[in-house]
Amino acid sequence: MIFLSKVQVTLYDLTIFQTEEFGKDKGYQQVYRLKLEGKNHLDVLNKVFQKFNVPDRMPSDFNARYIGTGDIILIDEARGGKHYYKLFPGGWRKINRIHVR
């Protein structure tokens, strides 16, 4: 007998922050906000990277540059707290809120 377990998917509230110039580490500003379903934080971070780095997948109202090294994503889980992730050359890493200015 085979049992299939349903993977729980959560709707996450995400905000993308970028600096005015690529490569800068100060002056982050909110550039886009969206809701996205995923299994966990890493899943939605990877979905954001894929969505905002392929022109055909980008929302028509997105007016910022591609997601790249140094960009920050805020995952707001309301009662679960706010979680900030920054894209480094090796992937996404959780950071402190203090890095967003």
Structural features, described:
With 101 residues, this protein is mostly beta strands. It has one domain (10-99). It has one helix and five strands; from the N terminus they run E-E-H-E-E-E. The protein has one helix at residues 41-51, and strands spanning 10-18, 29-38, 72-76, 82-88, 91-95. The chain has a five-stranded antiparallel beta sheet. The longest helix is centred in the middle third of the chain and has 11 residues, at 41-51. The radius of gyration is 15 Å and the shape is globular. Residues 21-85 form the YodL-like domain. It holds the Pfam family YodL. This is YodL domain-containing protein.
Largest sheet: 5 strands, antiparallel
Indicate how many domains the architecture comprises: 1
Alpha carbon gyration radius: 15 Å
> Approximately how much beta-strand content do the residues carry?
35-45%
What is the typical, i.e. mean, pLDDT? 89
**Adjacency order of strands in the biggest sheet:** 2-1-3-4-5
The count of β-strands is: 5
Q: List the helices and strands in order.
A: EEHEEE
Helix share bin: 10-25%
Structural class: mainly beta
Enumerate the spans where pLDDT stays under 50 for 5 or more consecutive residues.
none
Shape descriptor: globular
Give the termini separation: 54 Å
Oligomer: single chain
Count of separate DSSP helical elements: 1
